[in-house]
Write a structure and sequence with these properties.
single chain, 257 residues, alpha/beta, seven-stranded parallel sheet, two-stranded parallel ribbon, 14% strand
Length: 257
Amino acid sequence: MALNPRIEPWTGRRAWIVGASSGIGRATAAALHEAGAQVAVSARDAAALQQFTAEHPGSLALPLDVTDLASVQGAAQRLLRTWGTPDLVFACAGHYRPLRATEYSLAEMRRHLDINYIGTLNLLEVSLPPLLAAGRGHISLMGSVAGYRGLPHALAYGPTKAALNNLAEVMYFDLHDRGIGVSIVNPGFVDTPLTAQNRFPMPALMSSEQAAGEILRGWQAGQFEIHFPRRFTLGLKTLQSAWHGLYFAAVRRATGL
């Protein structure tokens, strides 16, 4: 069942992808461009953004740091002056470092919070007013299956993704009747520079390009939660409601941790 307005066709639509210098964000921006959308790409790595625009004619580079509200505001003002209100805003900027409680680092906990959660809030600060004024558009947040329940090595990462899942649900209540779609993207393991840090087997690993295809299909279908690959994520979703003892035992058996 479609919970959001379906986004199709892409031709003539304008998408702002924040966190587009590599990984899922870049692959999604490229897939949107190929589908006919105009794409604005943002990240801290200005050189990577310029390379993207050189390879994808008509796209727009908007360098920013999601942890710096003034930087985000400046990029948004340029976007609005150049294109007007976008049809899609994808908050994809993220930080991940495997971390366990036995190696606790407050600095790393704060860094995850600042980029993954506060960075998203900064983007909402500049995106919501024009979308509400227009009475249309779509906001998509990058979550993770690590936000479903606690997982080993996700001490810093998982809580930020759990917060984004909750945030997306609340936003849906508030924005659906105002004509604005809201979605949360919860991938399993995707081959990106972030997951390259992992030193454990990653089941059902998929490429960034495959992930981008799943995301576009989810937006086109009007899905609220876009999760993939389903052979992996459906099992985790089943465990969401499992008794804690059963859940801990199942995760320990699967990971050896």
